[in-house]
Amino acid sequence: MSLPKAIRDVVAVFERLPGIGPKSATRLAFYLLNVPDIFCEEFSDAIGVLKKNIKICKKCFSVADTDLCKVCADKSRNEREICVVDKAIDMLAIERMGVFKGVYHVLGGVINPLEHVGPEDIKIFELLERVRNLETLDKIEVLIATSLTMEGEATALYIKNRIEKLDIEDDMVKITRIGSGLPVGADLEYADEATLSRAMNGRKNM
Amino acid sequence: MSLPKAIRDVVAVFERLPGIGPKSATRLAFYLLNVPDIFCEEFSDAIGVLKKNIKICKKCFSVADTDLCKVCADKSRNEREICVVDKAIDMLAIERMGVFKGVYHVLGGVINPLEHVGPEDIKIFELLERVRNLETLDKIEVLIATSLTMEGEATALYIKNRIEKLDIEDDMVKITRIGSGLPVGADLEYADEATLSRAMNGRKNM
Q1: For position A97, which CATH number holds?
Q2: Residues sharing a CB contact under 8 Å with residue B95, sequence separation 6 or more, in sequence order
Q3: Of A6, A51, A70, the CB nearest to B37
Q4: Which domain range does residue A96 map to?
Q5: Is B93 near chain A, with CB under 8 Å?
Q6: Are B117 and B150 contained in the same domain?
Q7: Among the partner residues A48, A87, A92, nearest to B44 by beta-carbon distance
Q8: Is A119 within the bounds of a domain?
Q9: Is residue B65 less than 8 Å (CB to CB) from chain A?
Q10: Residue A193 lies in a domain
C-alpha cells in the first residue's frame, strides 16, 4: 500500500537520521498523527529555527547562544588548559562529568585523507593561534581528546608536531593525550588486540 | 553544561518521540547541526504540514490523501471481507504482505476502561453501520485483527457480540479472529504460558 504523500514525506526525513531505519521512521510518522497538533508545530518550529538560532563560539568553535559559548564566557575556567575535541557533542560528554575545569577547542572534524579533509579544513590553525596568544607566564596544557580512531590519532599527532614547532619555550607547553585502555566494566576476554595492547602498555602502579 | 536554547528545544521534541531517549535525542540534534540547511527545512516542513495534509478515509477511517484511502478507492477489493484493526499502521503491516484482498476498518483504538476508552470512543458504531449497509446477497466476513492484548481481545469479543445482534441472517455473516500461537522462528523454551496454551489449543492437522 502506498502511504499518503504527507506521511511518506515525514517517513523520508526520519529515515535520513542516523540510527532510524524504514520501520522506525514509519512508526514515528504514525505516532505524530496521534499527538496534539501543537506538538507537531513545536517540532517543526524547533527544527526550522535550529540552524538560524545557533551561533558558533568565536573562541572554541563550539555551539553557542551568543558570540561566546557558556564555557568560554565563564571566567572561572582555566584558559591555560585546552581540551581539543573532534566535535561539539564530545565536549558535552566531558562537561557531563563536571570534573574538567579548563576550556575546549572544537576542531569540527579530524584529518581524513580518504574523505579529503586536510589540516586546513579543520580548526587547527585557530588552535595554534590560541596557544600562541596565551601569555607564557604559566604552564599551558593542551589535552588532545580526539577519538581513538586512526584519523583521531593521526590528527592528535599532527597537532602535537605543530604545537612543538611554535615559538614557545619547551617546558611551558605540555601536550597530553586522553587515556586509552580497557573501558570500565570491560571483560578482557572480549577486548580487541589493539585496546588490550594499549591497556598493557598503559599499566600503572597500584 | 547547559546547551544553547535552539539545541535544547530540538532535543526536547526528539525526546518526546517513542523509543528515543535523552542520549539519542542529543545525538540527533547535533547531527542536524551538520546537515545541509535544506534538509532541516525539508524536515521542518514535512512535519509542519503532516496533520494539515492528511485526510481520514470516510469509509474505513484509515489515513488518506483524499476522501477515500487507496484501499477503499480500489474497486478490485472485496468489500464483503472487512478486516478490523486497531490503528492505521496495523493495516500497513497487513498490506505489506500483499495477500489480503478485502477492505479494512480502522477502529482508532481499543476498548480500555483504565484509560476511559469505551465502545463509543472508537469506530465500532461505524463498523456496525458498514456491515448493516452491505447487501446480504453474498456472505460477509468480518476478520477482527485487533492486537492480542487483553484490551484487543475484549474489543474483539465486544464487536462479535454486537454484530451477532444485528438484524442479519446468521449464516450470512462470518466473524473470525486473526490466528494466535507461536510466532514463526520462535523457540518453545522461551514462549510464555499464554501463547503456548493458545498454540496448543490452536493445533492443526498436518
Answers
A1: 3.40.1360.10
A2: A1, B71
A3: A51
A4: 76-177
A5: no
A6: yes
A7: A48
A8: yes
A9: yes
A10: no
Q: Do A106 and A171 have their domain in common?
A: yes
**How, if at all, do strands B55-56 and A173-177 pair?**
unpaired
Domain count, chain A: 2
Q: DSSP strand E in B37-185: where?
A: 55-56, 63-64, 78-85, 102-106, 140-144, 173-177
- What value of ipTM does the predicted structure carry? 0.83
Contact criterion met (CB < 8 Å) for B45 and A41: no
Q: What is the pLDDT along chain B (206 residues), one digit of tens a residue?
A: 688 999 999 999 999 999 999 999 999 999 999 899 999 999 999 999 999 999 999 999 999 999 999 999 999 999 999 999 999 999 999 998 888 999 999 999 999 999 999 999 999 999 999 999 987 778 899 999 999 999 999 999 999 999 999 888 878 899 999 988 888 888 888 888 888 888 888 888 87
SS3 B27: helix
* C-alpha closest to that of B174 among B75, B61, B59, B83: B83
Whole-prediction pTM value? 0.81
Work out the minimum CA distance from A197 to partner chain B, whole angstroms: 30
Specify whether the CB–CB gap between A81 and A143 falls below 8 A: yes
CATH number at residue A27: 1.10.8.420
Query: Hey, is the C-beta of B37 within 8 angstroms of any chain A C-beta?
Result: yes
B10 contacts in A (CB within 8 Å)?
46-47, 50
A26 contacts B89? CB cut-off 8 A: yes
Instruction: Closest CB to B51: pick one of A9, A40, A42.
Output: A40
Q: How far apart are CA B107 and CA B146, in angstroms?
A: 9
Instruction: Answer whether A56 touches B (CB < 8 Å).
Output: no
